[in-house]
Write a structure and sequence with these properties.
Layout lengths: L6 H6 L1 H6 L1 H7 L4 H9 L3 H25 L5 H12 L5 H13 L11 H9 L1
Helix pairs in contact: 4-5, 5-6, 6-8, 7-8
């Protein structure tokens, strides 16, 4: 398996994440089971795996909505989700997904590539 992109950041933020778990459960950001998994993680590998799975669950919800709306193809969605499941979660990928979700358009302004085209190029 590929080494997670920001594994050290996940482990470094462990105390902060654990401190806010109750709020995250109340807001629906994590489930009770996910919270327990984070709390019981005794090493960097276990904690990172739990964070990676939570990120994948969040991404699946966003990406499936984008596929249903026709803003992403199934192949593009599968490629994005595979990267996240492997631990790749760079800021640019998160920004691209957020922009695509916000804009609701596949077309880009004149002279600029569409978000989908940029994402597709990055996935290659």
């Amino acid at each position: 398996m590929k080494e997670p992109f920001d594994v050290h950041d996940d482990w470094g933020s462990r105390d902060r994440v654990l401190k806010h778990l109750d709020k995250m459960i109340a807001s629906g950001r994590v489930t009770g089971g996910e919270a327990e998994r984070l709390r019981s993680a005794r090493d960097q590998e276990m904690f990172t795996a739990a964070v990676r799975d939570i990120r994948a669950r969040h991404a699946e919800a966003v990406v499936s909505g984008l596929v249903e709306d026709g803003r992403l193809s199934s192949n593009e969605a599968d490629a994005i989700l595979e990267r996240i499941r492997e631990g790749d979660h760079p800021a640019q990928l998160r920004a691209d997904l957020a922009k695509l979700r916000r804009t609701g358009r596949r077309a880009a302004p004149a002279g600029r590539p569409s978000v989908e085209r940029v994402m597709h190029a990055r996935l290659r």
